[in-house]
Amino acid sequence: MGRAPRIHRTAGEVPLGIVREPVPAVALPSLAPDPDLYERLTRAVREPRRVDEAAVRWLERCLAEHRRVEDTTGSRPLLPVVRAQLAVVAELAHGAGGPLGERLVGLAAEYAQFVAWMCQDSGDLAAALAWYDRAHAWALEAGDARLAATTLSMRAHQAWSIGDGRACVRLAEAARLHDGHTTPGVQGMAAQMAARGHALMGEAEAARVLLDEAERLIVRATERPEDEPAWMYFYDDGWFAMQRGMAEIELGAGDRAVPLLEAGLARLPEAYRRDRAWFGSCLAKAHLLTGDADAAAGTALRFAEDALAVNAYAVRTLREVAAELRDTGIAAARDLGDLLAGARNASGREG
């Protein structure tokens, strides 16, 4: 019989129950192995060559579940757990042979891409770049063009996040070199990233042409979601509308951005707490661009608590909005400033 798992609590804004044995994981009922699976996992960790189908299926499910946990908690409390899981998967991939070994290389690539995203979300851009490169190499080794393209799109996102529009476009175009071997959703992600790079450089026509192309691809993807890879679970037309809104903000078109962001947020489930905080901060900025200070203040205040809990990037945007609203005399703007100042004094850091 398997031993009872030991559950620990992580430090951070959102506490999680963590099972340490036989593989570190968030303590979710859907991931609790029965005694037989527990023994299979324990045996595989001790002797990677003995990994079997049941253990690999559990690891795949574990990754899918943790992606969704991160949507709610943000990256900070989850990153150490997923790094530990990746170490296990990489060791199993090294020790296993045949089709299971090839499958584990692909799974290691998915884990590395997820770790890279969480490093980026946590502000560790150097680690993110290293893990994106590792994910891309493993994806190529596994023959998975969809994941290879996705890692390049995510590197484009990282370039966008530091204001490098040219690198964003180049990386997105590199992702599209895989187009004949990917899916409409993966292609749409690359097209919208190229569009955002052009928007960052103020190239409105190029950006909007690519956004129109991306929208057509996303519509095709939503018609057959079962054809898209597992990591594209969040990517639909509502999410794309918010990406388009972000591009319009870069172009200074708040009047275009506001309805796009509002429509996407209306469809985004409450469980996507981190993304709701980010796109909510973008909506506040879009209202500011239109000159609607009241809407900007109210929107910023509405999303501030979630931003402070799980999204440091959103906090930075809200601080920019608060600075613009400081002298307006709007009550919501005063409350926002007080909330952000109090959080900074309490934690000594952003977010």
List keywords for this structure.
351 residues, mainly alpha, Serine Threonine Protein Phosphatase 5, Tetratricopeptide repeat, 3 domains, three-stranded antiparallel beta sheet, 15 helices, 3 strands, 2% strand, disordered N terminus
Q: Could you describe the 3D structure shown?
A:
This protein has 351 residues and is mainly alpha-helical. The chain folds into 3 domains: 7-128, no CATH class; 144-268, Serine Threonine Protein Phosphatase 5, Tetratricopeptide repeat (Alpha Horseshoe); 269-351, no CATH class. Helices cover 72% and strands 2% of the residues. Strand 2 (17-19) and strand 3 (25-26) form a beta hairpin. The chain is globular. Residues 1-14 have low confidence and may be disordered.
Strand content: under 5%
Spell the H/E element sequence.
EEEHHHHHHHHHHHHHHH
- Number of E strands: 3
The largest pleated sheet is described as: 3 strands, antiparallel
* Large-scale geometry: globular
User: How many distinct domains?
Assistant: 3
Give the proportion of residues in helices: over 70%
Count of DSSP helices? 15
Radius of gyration from the alpha-carbon trace, in angstroms: 21 Å
CATH class of the largest domain: Mainly Alpha
Strand order of the largest sheet: 1-2-3
Head-to-tail CA distance between termini: 44 Å
Kindly report the average pLDDT value.
Answer: 91
What is the CATH-assigned architecture of the largest domain? Alpha Horseshoe
Structural class, by secondary structure, is: mainly alpha
Low-confidence stretches: 1-14
Question: CATH topology of the largest domain, what is it called?
Answer: Serine Threonine Protein Phosphatase 5, Tetratricopeptide repeat
